[in-house]
Specification:
This protein is an alpha/beta fold. It has 16 helices and 19 strands. Strands 1, 2, 3, 4, 5, 6, 16, 17, 18 and 19 form a 10-stranded mixed β-sheet that branches. Strands 14-13-12-11-10-9-8-7-15 form a 9-stranded parallel β-sheet. The termini are far apart.
Length: about 475
């Protein structure tokens, strides 16, 4: 019987129809820890200007780092070889804003607007989460992200009413595969007292003592009273911690807050502004001048009614930007969809402007290569990780995604960038490496008990659902 596994592990009848892996010590078909890995004859979509898109190219990984990129590379004796046979290889995606804890209600929010999300999830259901629920959703969410080729996630974790919830978030990120930024926040305490009770400093001393580790720390805060904000931003500056803030969504902080951040000299590259949809041109110019980054969640912004995605203004006014998923209770969770949603948002506006003038566009402002860049190296820059990840560059960590060449969507891969952005999806992700460690191989997660992760998530959903009345649930699924 021919199965996907036999196709991917056996010789292919047609060139490019299979990925061929060697066998090694340890688990069958997988390399022993620390063994060099070479990916042969890939079509490398590098996001490195010096390399570009390179066909029939090898990538050598040694000690978790990209050691070389080139044709027919000599490799260390005993290196584990993955024969790509022309399959597309791109950098792991970097998501600069994702609320992993909200995945407990995945699929339940399909008919929500931002108002429904606030009144239902944030104002009522968030209070039901126990620390073990935060652990389950965070752990499962990271596994899910890596499975989709998202190798770095900024976990905007702001449902932390107790220190035990914080510890559960941190434990889950360290237990899960993938590179993570722990966005520590607490929406239940708008005065930011949670910053000053000693727990963040304790985390810095114990869990986040090294800035070069796989899981690092960032503050996730929203706008509060000016005096409280000054104190919170000072706390971040004193500890050299980057900060992410929601702003510029309909009905939330807008231009006054941007002027405040500018006056405080905080619109710097260590600041990421999430959404930023409803701002004036003056605000965007201030952000561009300071070098702060935007985190664009076009799927969320369009579907939730938060405002028109800021990518149009970012491109027009030179604001650095990145891509993110946001709330996975409603949204897809994969960056292929996020890239396409971003392009659609921009192209709709471009076409609308042209049509109002009675014109037909012959070229587009935002290109496939632009959104792929923002989903990879742009996200890495926003998180201050561009020296580590975001491109296939010798010396960087081997955070890599190899797509299957044998799916209908990837046949033919006429243009590597166009195929990656417009045709690929989570089902095409064959192999994922994070820091040179195989996290997914031949379509299956490695080193993860997926059944256990699913069980944890199901137990959390069952508990939370038991605390919600049938009437409340019915109203939430189909709000009126």
């Amino acid at each position: 019987m021919t199965t996907r596994r036999t196709v991917l592990s056996g010789a292919a009848a047609l060139a490019g129809a299979a990925l061929l892996g060697g066998r090694a010590g340890g688990a069958p078909g997988l390399p022993a820890p620390g063994r060099a890995i070479v990916i042969r004859q890939a079509t490398v979509v590098s996001m490195d200007p010096a390399i570009g898109v390179a066909a029939d190219t090898d990538v050598l990984v040694v000690d978790g780092t990209i050691a070389a990129v080139g044709k027919r590379l000599p490799t260390p004796t005993g290196a584990f070889e993955i024969q790509a046979q022309g399959a597309l290889l791109h950098p792991g995606f970097v998501d600069t804003h994702r609320h992993l804890w909200q995945g407990a209600f995945r699929g339940a929010a399909g008919n929500w607007t931002r108002a429904t999300w606030l009144s239902t999830l944030m104002n009522r259901w968030a209070k039901l989460f126990r620390p073990e629920d935060i652990y389950a959703t965070t752990y499962f969410g990271m596994i899910d992200a890596v499975n989709d080729g998202v190798t770095t996630v900024m976990n905007w974790a702001h449902n932390h009413p107790t220190p035990d919830h914080v510890e559960a978030s941190v434990d889950a990120l360290f237990a899960a595969p993938g590179r993570a930024r722990f966005g520590c926040g607490n929406f239940t305490d708008p005065s930011y007292q949670w910053l000053f009770d000693g727990q963040v400093d304790q985390l810095l001393a114990t869990r986040f003592a090294r800035r070069d580790q796989r899981v690092t720390l960032q503050l996730a805060i929203d706008f509060g009273a000016p005096d409280d904000m000054v104190r919170a931003l000072g706390f971040a500056n004193q500890r050299h911690l980057p900060v992410s803030l929601h702003c510029g969504a309909f009905g939330t902080p807008t231009d006054d807050q941007i002027r405040f951040l500018d006056d405080q000299k905080f619109l710097t590259p260590s600041c990421t502004l999430v959404h930023a949809d409803t701002l004036s041109d003056d605000s965007y110019r201030r952000i561009a001048a300071g070098g702060a980054y935007l985190s664009v969640s076009a799927e969320s912004e369009s579907g939730y009614g938060q405002g028109y995605p800021a990518v149009v203004k970012a491109v027009q006014l030179g604001v650095p930007w990145s891509l993110s998923i946001d709330n996975i209770s409603q949204l897809s969770g994969d960056m292929y969809t996020a890239m396409r949603a971003t392009l659609i948002a921009d192209h709709l506006e471009e076409h609308r402007e042209a049509h109002q003038q009675g014109q037909q566009l012959t070229g587009l402002r935002l290109r496939s290569s632009d959104v792929l860049a923002q989903a990879t190296i742009g996200g890495a820059r926003a998180l201050g990780l561009d020296a580590v990840t975001g491109s296939i560059t010798p010396g960087k960590a081997a955070d890599l995604v190899l797509l299957r060449p044998d799916t209908l969507a990837m046949t033919p891969a006429a243009d590597p960038i166009g195929s990656t952005v417009h045709q690929a999806g989570r089902g095409d992700v064959d192999t994922v490496l994070v820091g040179g460690q195989l996290c997914k191989f031949r379509g299956e997660l490695v080193g993860v008990d997926v059944g256990h992760a699913r069980q944890l998530m199901q137990q959390t959903f069952s508990y939370l659902r038991s605390r919600i009345t049938d009437a409340d649930w019915a109203q939430a699924i189909n709000p009126t």
